[in-house]
Amino acid sequence: MRPSQRTRILDAAIRVTERDGITALTLESAAEEAGVTKGGLMYHFRTRDELLLAIQRHLTDAWEAQLVAELGKPLAQASPQEALEAYVRLGVHGAVSKADLAFMVESVATPALAEPWDDLIARWAPPPTSTDPHDIDRLLAQLAVDGLWLWRATSMIPLSEPVKQALHDRLLKLVAARDADAG
Fold first, then answer.
1. 139 contacts 127 by C-beta, under 8 angstroms
2. Which residue ranges does the record assign to the HTH tetR-type domain (predicted)?
3. What is the radius of gyration, based on Cα positions, of the chain?
């Protein structure tokens, strides 16, 4: 299926950011990268802010699709532990995009831009509501995955597959600590 012009523009804007940084992303640069006129782009996105919000949603939709694929079933059919396990697996072994990081950072100061990311995290790895040690272990696993993702997005030093696998295994043990305690 051929992507829509809107999707082509969003993907082009992400490529501009990945290649040149977020400050280089303008309506003009996105239009040029997508092979459309600025007027064609503005049919979909009247301002840079509209484009940025659409990109945030586009990126989080892509993350959601990857998480669902990793989970192997709809999120509504999964336990919180299964969802967090999928989050850990994707966070350790999934692709890392510098553009994702740039757009996440861009969203920090603007609640409307942060909302898609906050909604994604709230569904897949909600913060604990108690100080139960298992809930805190799950939060530690999530924070470790997020930190690993950030490190991979900003570091030029790759982790070996054995190290990534060891991290993966240890984080899943942390997520499942209560089950091990009960056994």
1. yes
2. 3-63
3. 18
Domain ranges of the chain: 1-46, 56-182
Q: Residue 171 pLDDT > 70, yes or no?
A: yes
* Global pTM exceeds 0.70: yes
CA pair distance 30, 45, nearest whole angstrom: 11
Could you tell me the sign of the dihedral formed by the alpha carbons of 121, 122, 127, 128, in that order?
negative
**What class, spelled out in words, does domain 56-182 have in CATH?**
mainly alpha
- CATH number of the structural domain 1-46: 1.10.10.60
- Give the residue ranges of DSSP H helices in the chain: 5-20, 27-34, 38-44, 48-71, 80-93, 98-107, 111-124, 133-154, 161-175, 177-182
Residue 20 is which amino acid?
D
